[in-house]
Amino acid sequence: MASDRLQPTRWGDRLGTTLRSVFKLDPILLFFVAVIAMIGVVAGYSAAEQSEAWVERSIVRLGLGFGLMLLIAQIPQRWFFAVAPWLYAMVALMLVAVWLVGDMGGGARRWLDLGVIRFQPAELMKVAMPMMIAWFLARRPLPPRPLDVLVAVLAVGIPTVLIAGQPDLGSSLLIMASGLFVLFFAGLSWWYLGAFVGLVIAAMPVMWFFVMHAYQKERVLTLLDPTSDPLGAGYHTIQSMIAIGSGGVWGKGWLQGTQSHLDFLPEGTTDFILAVYAEEFGLMGLLVLFLLYLAVIWRGLWIAEHAESVEGRLLAASISMTFMVYVLVNAGMVLGLLPVVGAPLPLMSYGGTALVTIMVGLGMLMSIRTQRSFLGHNR
Amino acid sequence: MLDRLHDHGRARRVFRQRILFAALISLVVVLTLLGRAAWLQIAQHDHYLAKAEKNRTRLVVVPPERGRIFDAQGEVVADNVATYQVQITPEHSQDVGVELAMLADVLGLDTRAVEALEERIRVSRRFDPVLVKADLDEVERARIARLKPWLPGTEIVSSLKRVYPYRELLAHVVGYVGRINAEDVKRLDPDAYQGTQYIGKTGIERQYEDRLHGEPGYRVVEVDALGREVKVLDTQRPVPGKDIALTIDVGLQGVAAAALGEYAGAVVAQDPRDGAIRALVSRPSFDPNLFVDGISHKAYRELLEDPDRPLYNRATRATYPPGSTIKPVMGLAGMEYGLIDPDERFFAGPYYQIPGNDHRYRDWRKWGHGWVDFEESVFRSVDVYYYDLAFRMGIDRMHAFLTEFGIGQETGIDLPGESAGLMPSRDWKQRVKQQVWFPGETVIAGIGQGYMLSTMLQLADMTSTLALSGVRHVPWLVADDREPQPRLTLSSDDYWQRARGAMRAVVGHERGTAHKIEAPYPIAGKTGTAQVFSVAQDEEYDAEELERRLHDHALFVGFAPFDDPKLSVAVIAEHGGSGSGTAAPIARQVMDFWFGVEPDADVQPEFSEHGD
């Protein structure tokens, strides 16, 4: 019988099914994510002057991150949507509270001090926003009607404006994107999308003259000509491009990067880790890394396509594309395509809150992949 | 129902399209990023490689040498001495373990220190030197030098360290430097302090930090791919800090400190002709050398918790009631306001009463002084005379006049942390205590007690003003362009002569309170006591100690020679009893040294209970 030939496949299939149903995780996604994280440690070791203590700390952080991801994956997806409106409302209130009584830090009002801990509600909103919009739209006929679109746009817009005013332009754009992605996947008509893009372009001069801070404008201007301010805003971009460009196709080899090691490149383990990696592993290294990122994004979209519930589909697709935006913004900045904003590279940059947010998103993706609604069954 | 199912199917279809679109977009994004990377790494590779080469120069900062501090005679009071440290560069060593073992043996390092060093070497780059031991002594240096052939990775390097040869003698004036801490970083220019380890923390070291520090130089060095120095491309020598000469005379300072003996207290000696401070003593003191490389927590706590408070500058920071030392100034005020005729005799009984009030303000002399004129009131220090004068003058006029003489005002000396003292007024009392001024408070203010507080520096400066009949100078320690102070003028120059003459009689008249310090050169002065009102609660009960702490502080201010004043002195001996018994002889010793007179064996500080 043909079954003999199919035996190994079926065995592998069964293993995957078992992992999915018992441990509630997606082995494919887990694999890509783990490989990227490993590359991050390898590159960070070099950037951190080969400090073993750094590696230890970073592995502990990643361990906690993966633990969190797998924990989130165990939660039935309908629970996310049961709490979505409440979480959204709570975080929105916190943002208002930050506006009123927040702690100043580094010239920006971003933190809420709860006595025991200080945290940024903006980070929580990155999680709450797509959940909320997905919850809202999934309860209405799709594609969404104009009134529903209006409500959703308001739900996206208010926190975005609050966070942009902190000022935290980077976070506000990411949060806006995560909400709009849900609208996009819900089937918002191309006319609306076209109108939105038109609006954004029209709004740019307004932003430039009335909203953006001087330092933000400076960063945009230096992007056009980094050499105009070689010791100030352009310094990062110039040093980063030198590191990457001198890496060539094959790179200088692990631990052999001169630019990152001579302290020419600041923030080598955090926002600019990609430059360290590109210098030492070259274009080939970047190719591997970007394909891994693409694999994560595509796997996320695949999970969205195969999700059973409408809300799960919308949430999974939004998480995947927001992940892409993270990669685009950081890599664009390091490669000198976008202005310098404090944005981490997912799973590579060393840092706490960003890792938590990303891991929560990936955990949700796994949950949507494995947790079926009460009518569902494993396919 | 059908419509909704239809809608559902349509939404599903739209979703699939959008997913595909998103997948396409993400592919385009990744390809764009890769394209940009390819452009940088292939097309622009040579360009950026060249830039990376150029990037390989490094700036090595060379900190400047700190300016030294000298006294008026050119004695070094803050010096820089070379200290040596041994460091090991793993790359140059054949076997780091063996070298470390040898060094541990020679330097007597324990196993824990060696393990810590091994860990440091393991984590640092092979070409970066690792510090093995700082502050090597000569023996250690010699031993390492002898073993040099077997220690290829080991080298001895020198660095400069601040040293205060006079230790506690000048600690309160010169101050000290310490390692730059987070607080210092806020106030200093990071460029100017690159590579600098020390910064002035107190005293002259802090006041003249900018002048002492200098400007750093640098070397531009070429480094190889791993950051080793290959060669020096350019050198800019550092500009050393400027030396500073103080007005202080170390000899006089030493005599003044010795004259205070066991007493806690202060001596300030000033040249009345230009305001230069010749001695500024605060006892007890501390060794500033302890602070240079960071004082141990225990030693610092000991200094802080010492009941004698050695860190407290009693010359410029501590404030005491000026006591009877203000009587000459009070007399000037009385003459100026037309309240006294210096020749008119006044009956001074054993006490004074405000008209219509029962409270008795007692004279220090139980049975009073009888009929006295102004001069007698000063040289016999008649309290009742000044109770009466103060009451008639009122606190408002007193406040105005004594403020002119600097009481309650910072003198403006070039030292950080000077106290203003306090010249009380109605306004001050209302503001601080929310109470009205009582006439009784005016009465005791007349003999420099009550709320009135002054520093020894202020009293020395006030004495200089008296010595030169109103010529004033801001006291100073480092020669500088100083604005001349407007001269104090009174309606008659004779008032000055009266007050000065009365001060001369304090020493010169056989019934003067300080007659026993009469010297071959004419001294004028005024004794005083500062009442000790409250006693700090001692943890351990010690009758003798407690009793000592109840004694008044002894004060003396004076100047000499009377006809051509060259030195003014203010002395406080805490719990010294009386100004005549304790403080005046101390001032005499200071003046003897200054005027080159053999010390008079008869005049020794002695404890006596009251007397002025």
Automatic annotation (TrEMBL), chain A:
Assigned protein family:
Belongs to the SEDS family. MrdB/RodA subfamily.
Reactions catalysed: [GlcNAc-(1->4)-Mur2Ac(oyl-L-Ala-gamma-D-Glu-L-Lys-D-Ala-D-Ala)](n)-di-trans,octa-cis-undecaprenyl diphosphate + beta-D-GlcNAc-(1->4)-Mur2Ac(oyl-L-Ala-gamma-D-Glu-L-Lys-D-Ala-D-Ala)-di-trans,octa-cis-undecaprenyl diphosphate = [GlcNAc-(1->4)-Mur2Ac(oyl-L-Ala-gamma-D-Glu-L-Lys-D-Ala-D-Ala)](n+1)-di-trans,octa-cis-undecaprenyl diphosphate + di-trans,octa-cis-undecaprenyl diphosphate + H(+)
Give the first-level EC class, as a single word. transferase
Bilayer topology: Multi-pass membrane protein
Functionally, this protein is described as follows: Peptidoglycan polymerase that is essential for cell wall elongation.
Where's it found, cell-wise? Cell inner membrane; Membrane
Protein's name according to its UniProt entry: Peptidoglycan glycosyltransferase MrdB
Q: What is its EC number?
A: 2.4.99.28
Supply the gene name. rodA
The biological pathway it contributes to is: Cell wall biogenesis; peptidoglycan biosynthesis
In terms of one coarse class, where is the protein primarily found?
Answer: membrane
Show the stretches that span the lipid bilayer.
28-48, 54-72, 79-101, 121-138, 147-165, 171-188, 195-215, 281-302, 314-341, 347-368
Q: Which UniProt keywords apply?
A: Cell inner membrane, Cell membrane, Cell shape, Cell wall biogenesis/degradation, Glycosyltransferase, Membrane, Peptidoglycan synthesis, Transferase, Transmembrane, Transmembrane helix
The lineage's top-level taxon is Bacteria
UniProtKB/TrEMBL annotation, chain B:
> Which keywords does UniProt give here?
Carboxypeptidase, Cell inner membrane, Cell membrane, Cell shape, Cell wall biogenesis/degradation, Hydrolase, Membrane, Peptidoglycan synthesis, Protease, Transmembrane, Transmembrane helix
Q: Where in the cell is it found?
A: Cell inner membrane; Cell membrane; Membrane
Q: Which residues form the Penicillin-binding protein transpeptidase domain?
A: 265-592
Q: Which reaction does it catalyse?
A: Preferential cleavage: (Ac)2-L-Lys-D-Ala-|-D-Ala. Also transpeptidation of peptidyl-alanyl moieties that are N-acyl substituents of D-alanine
Lipid biosynthesis in keyword set: no
Q: Residue ranges of the Penicillin-binding protein dimerisation domain?
A: 62-232
What is the first-listed, main subcellular location in coarse terms?
membrane
Q: How does it sit in the membrane?
A: Single-pass membrane protein
Q: Name one GO molecular function term.
A: serine-type D-Ala-D-Ala carboxypeptidase activity
EC number(s) per UniProt? 3.4.16.4
Catalytic residues, chain numbering: 324 (acyl-ester intermediate)
Spans traversing the lipid bilayer: 20-39
Pfam families membership: PBP_dimer, Transpeptidase
Listed pathway(s): Cell wall biogenesis; peptidoglycan biosynthesis
Q: What does this protein do?
A: Catalyzes cross-linking of the peptidoglycan cell wall.
**PANTHER family of this UniProt entry?**
PEPTIDOGLYCAN D,D-TRANSPEPTIDASE, PEPTIDOGLYCAN D,D-TRANSPEPTIDASE MRDA
Annotated family: Belongs to the transpeptidase family. MrdA subfamily.
**Name of this protein:** Peptidoglycan D,D-transpeptidase MrdA
* Species: Guyparkeria halophila
Q: What is the lineage of its organism?
A: Bacteria, Pseudomonadati, Pseudomonadota, Gammaproteobacteria, Chromatiales
